[in-house]
Amino acid sequence: DAKTTQPTSMDCAEGRAANLPCNHSTISGNEYVYWYRQIHSQGPQYIIHGLKNNETNEMASLIITEDRKSSTLILPHATLRDTAVYYCIVTYNNNDMRFGAGTRLTVKP
Amino acid sequence: NAGVTQTPKFQVLKTGQSMTLQCAQDMNHEYMSWYRQDPGMGLRLIHYSVGAGITDQGEVPNGYNVSRSTTEDFPLRLLSAAPSQTSVYFCASTRDYLDNEQFFGPGTRLTVL
User: Fold this and answer.
1) Could you give phi then psi for residue A28, rounded to 5 degrees?
2) What is the band of A93 on the pLDDT scale with cuts at 50, 70, 90?
3) N or C: which terminus of chain B carries fewer CB neighbours within 10 A?
4) Phi then psi dihedrals of residue B18, to 5 deg
């Protein structure tokens, strides 16, 4: 079973920030938080990962709480092309990547 | 670079038939893996390989075989297809098992009648 809990679906207005939450209350000290997304029926796409510090790249920002029991993925200016299923995964290596059902984000015009 | 390629894109099998799903990558990645995705669900790891000649089981390995004779290729074999194996299969690769970004192929949609 996935070690994370995410809302089933969310909506966001185009141009606004999309904030996707993830709970991972049983995370271990050496486990990272990963985010991937899957657009329609394509293969998943890596977005960002972090251990305990906040991270930012060209796609998104990742905010991890101090106790590491939850995190938030932020898409700063959502576009229609960001409509996808977003997966939050907690693992320490690729041999144990467990994708849950994810959050279906719909960006609306 | 073509990235991760998978063939075929679609396949229909009858129960009991065997087939091989092909996966290749041209990024010289050591780590490759196979996932299946059932409708409305996330991906589940079937088998993985940390390098040529080395494979291991993931979360749902039953009914599948793999081999890794070259760095580039990682085929997945269904020995005797069952309706429960109807799914979309994704292959992925990354530099090594600790590397953070996996690259996924476009998937093979398999239906077993």
Assistant:
1) -90, 165
2) confident
3) N
4) -115, 155
Give the pLDDT score at B97.
74
Specify the pLDDT at position A2: 57
Q: Examine the pLDDT at A94 and tell me if it is beyond 80.
A: no
pLDDT of residue A1: 55
Residues whose CB falls within 8 Å of the CB of residue B96, separated by 6 or more in sequence, listed in order: B29, B30, B31, B50
Interface of A with B in 25-84 (CB under 8 A): 32, 34, 36, 41-46, 49
Identity at B66, one-letter amino acid code: V
- Are A101 and B45 an interchain contact pair (Cβ–Cβ within 8 Å)? no
A95 touches chain B (CB under 8 A): yes
Gyration radius of chain A's alpha carbons: 13
d(CA B91, CA B46): 10
| Structure confidence at residue B98 (pLDDT) | 77
Alpha-carbon span B33 to B42, nearest angstrom:
15
